[in-house]
Design goal:
By secondary structure, this protein is α+β, with helices and mostly antiparallel strands. The protein is built from 10 helices and 11 strands. The protein folds into 2 domains: 194 residues, no CATH class; 113 residues, no CATH class. The strands form 3 sheets. Strands 4-3-7-8-9-6-5 form a 7-stranded antiparallel β-sheet.
Length: 361
């Protein structure tokens, strides 16, 4: 079982438990973020330590600016002395990227589209739709299509043998590549599909006796799925499916999700910056961080408008941002309390030392 299928099965199990695929995505996000909580805490502590060590690091850089090799050596000694890993904050980001790719692949896959592509959540009409996409009506006997669409089969087929024996759930080998279009696809005319008998996971004796098969075909552009009956002809399974031309439409619900993502990302950056404003830092670096915190959400929103991101992935990102905001506030309050306790301990030691001196006098 590949990782995309595993992700789909996990979402299926969560949806069965909570009753909705949108809630399942939120629950999956919470699980992932809880598992990564220690790493994210380590990242925040690493960032705070970097802020506090920044003046000393800059002093080393200024002192050895004419000797890069010596500067690198002194910086490594400095990191070792303070037990500081400058790359420690990157690990959570590196771990989250494969999760994002897996969820993107899962929600865009034919398996998810056939299973729950038309699932809705709150104001979102379909979890698999993108900002600009074509919408087709599934299982109406007519395939909505445009000229350059591509198609995929489901994972299994219902096969009828010549003796009228029915074989259910016959596995299809490479469902994304098994289906071919005969001739040119012209929306409004019948689409002529064909596939080789060898793509069905059956014994040779069974393959030789196939009369027909019923399979699901998904248009990867419109997300429409139709159950199609294939007939055997000259060693192939062939089917002719009526089609109608479809046009791309703009989905305002997905735009709203993109806007929510931008807002939550901006708030996350702003809260993170506000927790660092009292830490000593280079003014130039502070200006760069402030600019990044402002323009990064805008840049990513622009990217999401251009690149098709499914609504379900945006839901994952929004939930992740909200959890990040809560975590930043909670962890920074804990670190503030720890710093206050350390300062109180130092002040108490100083006070005791001053009293001892007064007693001696």
């Amino acid at each position: 079982m590949d990782f995309t299928t595993l992700t789909i099965e996990l979402l299926k199990g969560l949806a069965h438990f909570v009753g909705n695929y949108g809630i399942a995505i939120i629950v999956l996000t919470i699980i992932v973020r809880l598992l990564m909580w220690p790493l994210n805490v380590s990242q925040q502590r690493s960032m705070r330590m970097m802020q506090s060590l920044q003046p000393k690091m800059k002093a080393i850089q200024d002192r050895y600016k004419n000797d890069p090799q010596k500067m690198q050596q002194k910086m490594m000694e400095f990191y070792k002395e303070h037990k500081f890993n400058p790359m420690g904050g990157c690990l959570p980001l590196l771990i989250q990227m494969p999760i994002f790719i897996l969820l993107y692949s899962a929600l865009m896959s034919p398996q998810f589209i056939q299973m729950a592509g038309d699932a809705s959540f709150l104001f979102v009409n379909r979890l698999d739709t993108t900002l600009r996409a074509s919408a087709g009506i599934s299982n109406d006997g007519v395939m909505g299509a445009s000229q350059y669409d591509s198609f995929s089969l489901g994972k299994t087929a219902r096969v009828v043998l010549k003796n009228n024996e029915v074989l259910d759930n016959v596995k299809i080998d490479k469902p994304n590549k098994s289906l071919e279009i005969q001739g040119q696809l012209v929306p409004g005319e019948n689409i002529e599909f064909k596939m080789s008998l060898d793509n069905l996971d059956l014994k040779f004796s069974q393959l030789d006796n196939i009369a027909s098969a019923e399979m699901s075909i998904t248009d990867l552009n419109t997300k429409e799925t139709e159950k199609v009956k294939f007939e055997r002809k000259e060693g192939l399974l062939v089917a002719s499916v009526p089609s109608i031309a479809v046009q791309r439409s703009f989905h305002w619900d997905v735009l709203a999700l993109i806007a929510l993502f931008g807002i939550t990302m901006y708030l996350s950056q702003k809260i993170m910056m506000s927790t660092q404003k009292n830490s000593p830092s280079d003014p130039t670096q502070q200006a760069i961080q402030k600019s990044m915190g402002t323009f990064m959400p805008i840049m990513i929103i622009g990217t999401f408008i251009i690149i098709p991101i499914p609504a379900g992935v945006l839901l994952y990102l929004i939930t992740s941002n909200v959890i990040q905001i809560l975590q930043t506030v909670i962890v920074n309050k804990q670190m503030d309390m720890e710093d206050a306790a350390k300062k109180a301990a130092v002040d108490d030691d100083d006070l005791k030392g001053a009293r001892k001196i007064d007693t001696k006098d």
